[in-house]
Structures are given as structure tokens and as C-alpha cells.
Design goal:
Pfam families: Abhydrolase_1. This is Alpha/beta hydrolase. One of its GO terms (cellular component) is membrane. Keywords: Hydrolase, Signal. The chain has 333 residues and is α/β, with parallel strands linked by helices. The protein has one domain: Rossmann fold (3-Layer(aba) Sandwich), CATH 3.40.50.1820. It has 13 helices and eight strands. It is globular.
Length: 333
């Protein structure tokens, strides 16, 4: 495989982007978040890596820290509304870009696992001398947050999951396996219009606002830049991790009080488009999945948003953050 990678990159199809699509480097160099970005340098699997992160200390601290774990098509920067809401309420907020994403290193060879990403994040918190925190994960970040809480139960004050994926095991449900090479071929065809259409249907329940284009261009620019093949390759490896490493069977082992914030219009399921039509219709049923997950997790609280989709924190920030802040105060200890 190692000998084939350069040839694979050279032979890959080039994404067809609209003329207005920006071009960003492989570490999203030219795209600015609304907060300063710091970098944690460390070694993992023989690689020198950089994890980009945002660290916001509140003016009136309440002594608590929230760590935000982004989703597959999101970044630390997409948490900007949540960072402000939490910081204004007195929380210190740490928002990393996981390795393979956004402004962090995208290694050519890396064995991705939720265990590894959780360990990387734990090392970052050790570096920042944070012993205990609330771990908040959205989408794929919900799977990572679950793994983190299972690995480090004594260091998780609370667990919050926002429309987490992985509430069902797609391979068991009938979603066919795709090789990393197949994922790579798909990712190499990423376009801004494709991102926009998918997000419109899934993330925002069919609604679209002009401000969402900032996040579309962020992603599209990565796939349109000089490092596009490396970006697509890491994305393929990450999809393989998500598909093949379910956390759904371990929800009953979670010890931290858990808050589930679920937009009921969501229908996200990895690999859904490759499944037979009759199976597609059954996947990503968040009204059912949210309730099932709340029953599976001890000491859990479920909050549902009837009209919101996969990204309620972006779609309806005022409604979402009111529920989040209340839930952080009300979670059972």
C-alpha cells in the first residue's frame, strides 16, 4: 500500500469546483476562525503532528471547562456561537481540531481510531493542565466523546452529545462496506455544490441561510487546494474509522451524567446512499434513535428539538444554547 499511495494520488480524479470556490492549504491556512488558534505539537505513531485548538478563558470564570469535539464535516471554528455562549456563562472552552481535520496535521500514514483521537485530546488537556472537564461532542464528535468518557471516566465531569452519529451500527443495519480506496475516490469528487446540497437536506432540515455558505466554502476550499489529495485521503481513512468502530454497544458502560441534544429532523447515516432503498428509509431515524440511546445510557437526559436538523447549534443557536446551558446546570450528579 505504501508504494501505491503516490501513484494513487497522481491518478485520482480532480474535484470539479465552481470558479468562486476558494482554495485553502491542507491545514486550512488561509481560512480564519473568529478566535486565535494555538498549536499543540506532539509525536504519535512515529509522526510529528500539530493539533490546532482554540482556548477561551472567560472574564467571569465559574471554575468549569467544556471541551468541544467537532463533527466529520465541521471544525473548531464552526463552534464559534457555542464558544461565545459558554464563555459568556463562565466556562473555559477548549475546541481542538482533531488530527486529520481542518487546521491540524493530515498525515499520509496514520492508523485512525477513536481511541487514538481520544488519547491525543487527553494529552492536549494534560498539556493545558486540565484535570476534569465536561466533554461535548457533535456528530462524529459524539462518537469520540463517548470513547473519551469510556477511557477516562474519572476525568469527565459531564458528557454532552449533540446529534451524535453512531447511534446504530451501520454494517449490521445493512450499509455495505467500502474500502478506503473507494472512500477516497468519493472524497476526491467533493464539490461545493455537493456539500451545500447534502447539508441543506441533513444539517438544516431543508432550510438554508446565506451564513451557512461560510462553512461550505471552508470545506470546499480544503478539497480545492494544493493539498486536496492528502485531504481526501485522510477523509477516507476517517470514514473507514467511523464505519468500522461503533460505540453503540458500550453506551451502558458510561458513568458520567449525560445530556443528549437531538434535532429530530436529522437523518444522517454513514454510507446511507450506498445501501438498498428499503434500508435507506430505516437509517438515521433520530426521533427513535435519540429515545433508544437515552434508555441505554445510565443517568441520561434527553432534550429534543422538533424542527431542527443535524446541526442545531448552528441552525437555531439561541434555542440550542438555552437548552445546553440549562442542561449543564441541571444534569444529574
Amino acid at each position: 500500500m505504501r508504494r501505491l499511495l503516490p501513484a494513487l494520488f497522481l491518478a485520482s480524479a480532480t474535484p470539479v469546483m465552481a470558479a468562486e470556490t476558494p482554495s485553502y492549504g491542507a491545514m486550512l491556512e488561509e481560512f480564519d476562525y473568529d478566535r486565535p488558534v494555538e498549536r499543540f505539537e506532539f509525536q504519535s505513531q512515529g509522526e510529528k503532528l500539530q493539533m490546532a485548538y482554540i482556548d477561551v478563558k472567560p472574564e467571569n470564570a465559574n471554575g468549569r471547562t467544556v471541551v468541544l469535539m467537532h463533527g466529520k464535516n465541521f471544525c473548531a471554528g464552526t463552534w464559534e456561537g457555542s464558544i461565545k455562549a459558554l464563555s459568556d456563562a463562565g466556562y473555559r472552552v477548549i475546541a481542538p481540531d482533531q488530527i486529520g481535520f481542518c487546521k491540524s496535521t493530515k498525515p499520509l500514514r496514520y492508523q485512525y481510531s477513536f481511541h487514538q483521537l481520544a488519547h491525543n485530546t487527553h494529552d492536549l488537556l494534560d498539556h493545558l493542565k486540565i484535570d476534569k472537564a465536561t466533554i461535548l461532542g457533535h456528530s462524529t464528535g459524539g462518537m469520540l466523546a463517548t470513547r473519551y468518557a469510556l477511557l477516562y471516566p474519572d476525568q469527565v465531569e459531564q458528557l454532552v452529545m449533540v446529534n451524535p452519529i453512531g447511534l446504530e451500527d451501520w454494517k449490521v443495519e445493512g450499509v455495505p462496506y467500502q474500502t478506503v480506496d473507494q472512500w477516497y475516490a468519493n472524497e476526491a469528487q467533493t464539490t461545493a455544490e455537493g456539500i451545500r446540497e447534502y447539508e441543506r437536506k441533513t444539517y438544516y432540515a431543508g432550510d438554508w441561510k446565506p451564513e451557512y455558505d461560510r462553512w461550505v466554502n471552508m470545506l470546499a476550499g480544503l478539497f480545492n487546494g494544493p493539498g486536496k489529495n492528502l485531504v481526501a485521503w485522510n477523509s477516507a481513512l476517517l470514514y473507514d474509522m467511523i464505519y468500522s468502530q461503533p460505540v453503540v454497544y458500550e453506551f451502558g458502560q458510561l458513568k458520567a451524567p449525560t445530556l443528549l441534544l437531538i434535532g429530530l429532523q436529522d437523518n444522517t447515516a454513514i454510507g446511507k446512499a450506498k445501501a438498498p432503498k428499503d434500508i435507506q428509509a430505516k437509517l438515521g431515524n433520530y426521533p427513535e434513535l435519540g429515545k433508544r440511546t437515552a434508555k441505554a445510557i445510565p443517568n441520561s437526559t434527553l432534550v429534543e428539538f422538533e424542527k431542527l436538523g443535524h446541526a442545531p447549534q448552528i441552525q437555531a443557536p439561541a434555542e440550542f444554547h438555552e437548552a445546553l446551558l440549562k442542561g449543564l446546570s441541571d444534569l444529574k450528579s
